[in-house]
Amino acid sequence: MPAPPDTLKETTIDGARTTRWSMEAAECRALAAHRIARLGIDHAVAPYERVRLTPGGSFFMIVLHGSGRVLLDGRWQTVSAGWACMAPPRVPNAFHALPRQSWNFLWMRYDEPAFVSPQVSAASPLKVKVDVDQLQRVWEGLRGEWESGRDPQALHHWIELAHHHTRRLSEPWRRDERLRMLWETVQSRLVEDWTLKALAHAAHVSEEHFRRLCWKELGRSPMAHLTSLRMQAAQTLLVSTRDKQETIAQLVGYRSPIAFSRAFKRWVGCHPSEYRARS
User: Fold this and answer.
1) Which of 2, 62, 184, 203 is most enclosed, with most CB atoms within 10 A?
2) Strand pairing report for 102-110 and 36-45
3) Range 5-169 classified under CATH 2.60.120.10
4) Following CA atoms 77, 38, 174, 216 in sequence, which dihedral angle do they give, to the nearest 10 degrees?
5) Beta strand 36-45 with 67-72: parallel, antiparallel or unpaired?
6) Would residue 234 be called left, alpha or beta, if left means φ above 0 and alpha means ψ between -120 and 50 degrees?
7) Cα–Cα distance between 202 and 179 in angstroms, integer?
8) The whole model's pTM is what?
């Protein structure tokens, strides 16, 4: 089993049977034009493991076959074929292949300094169902061109398509206007004491229906998404201001600095003071 989230260390393990195809921005300027650091296709077999404690950009994974464990919202979750998951920059990413299973997935990592608006934000879904056949054709088309002609125009075409698909995956609340309006309101009023009942009332639906909508559109519960918005806002304030942690805690909706620090550690992987020091 993968290690508990609070004990993770930077790790790269492939194992004898894992294979990877990848492209790097250093080799292809068309990737760098979209701030894509690298992308690839992995066939992962245990003991495959990756841990990145402070990744410099958004990460996308689209599972083609099999399943594995991914660290999402500070906890390990199983991600299987037909699902895409994503993670924002500067939050720990970790991936762990399960015993006696092969795990095939497409992936893309962006390079996004703190002053750049990231592809994946706190408002983005956690997991979404996708058409893996369509996405696989894009990655395989790019791979075929890279391994053969390397025509600049053709490469630009395939990379533009890949970037378009990841950008569309990360768009929040893509199909439900009620969710879009609600979460925009919540994001501007994080200091308020939002409850599940209050959120559902603001969206004009029952609590159960609201819970189902959030799982369908965002891949997480309403309260988990609220925490995600608060943690993203806290990260921004820690980097862009000199406000004390007690002040930041209140600004993002925590009355107790201790509760804020614990939530931040669970979500981001380190205490607020550590995050500020290394950012």
Assistant:
1) 62
2) antiparallel
3) yes
4) -10
5) unpaired
6) alpha
7) 10
8) 0.80
